[in-house]
Specification:
By secondary structure, this protein is mainly beta. The chain has one helix and nine strands, in the order αβββββββββ. A hairpin with an 8-residue loop joins β5 and β6.
């Protein structure tokens, strides 16, 4: 299933490439304001984390592009001074990007994420050792929507919200929700 998903993602990301010289490769780094949503997430606060990785922008037309990315994303939540729910993913967003004005774009698309670390970390000094493997699901699927601005120099800014579509754990029943702000450069 996962192999088929990867093949489909790569095919979608690079479909319609007319001229390989038009593809722009870039790096982006920024901040996540991550939380978990659901009926059992009442007492959890958002957590600040890092996001960064590589991007490619494949123009389909003058105003429309596909932007696949490969990102490391620190997500999760925390409960005041008690614990931090540390979830780290390798994410593959595939964004459809439409330029509505010179340099200004709107973006939307799916994000496929693969869990590389799940840990419950006590925040108080007497909390004990972190608990590895919190039984979080190894795969997460999100719907992304965002805005971006690209300068002629190659520098770009993006803001995005990732809405988790599947539960990351069954008990408690919670989903990821992440607001991202990134700065990048396209070569």
């Amino acid at each position: 299933m996962i192999k088929k998903l990867w093949i489909a993602c790569i095919a979608i990301a690079f479909a319609g490439t007319v001229n390989a010289q038009d593809v722009k490769i870039g790096l982006k780094f920024g901040m996540n304001l991550a939380s978990v949503n659901g009926g059992d997430a009442n007492n959890l606060d958002s957590r600040t984390g890092f996001v960064g990785g590589v991007t490619a922008e494949v123009p389909i037309s003058e105003k429309f592009s596909i932007q696949p990315e490969l990102l490391y994303s620190a997500q999760g939540a925390q409960q005041r001074d008690n614990f931090k729910y540390d979830l780290n993913y390798v994410s593959l967003p595939i964004m459809a990007k439409y330029y509505i004005a010179n340099g200004f774009s709107v973006e939307a698309g799916p994000q496929f994420s693969f869990l590389i670390k799940d840990q419950l970390v006590p925040l108080d000094e007497f909390g004990g050792q972190p608990r590895e493997n919190t039984n979080a699901e190894n795969f997460d699927l999100a719907a992304n929507i965002g805005l971006g601005y690209q300068f002629q120099s190659g520098i770009f800014f993006q803001t995005r919200y990732n809405l988790g579509l599947i539960a990351i754990t069954e008990n408690p029943d919670i989903k990821n929700g992440v607001f991202q702000m990134t700065l990048g450069y396209q070569f």
